[in-house]
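Bug #77: duplicate submission created two jobs. Keeping one. Sequence:
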Amino acid sequence: MPGHTRLYRRGAVYYHRAAVPTDIAATYGKREETFSLKTRDYAEAVRRVRIVHSHRQAHFLAYISLDV
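Kept job's structure:
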């Protein structure tokens, strides 16, 4: 099963890691977002990270469109 570049493991739990786009990093307040996927199962983590990644991209696009 292929992995995902934004997936990493800390201990036994899988996490999602996403870099904040450089054009909003100054106003966003963070350079990177990291949070738990709340699973220890690799296959479930891959499924969840793909879903979460698309949500994060939509979130960043919405933030960019606010013109903060």
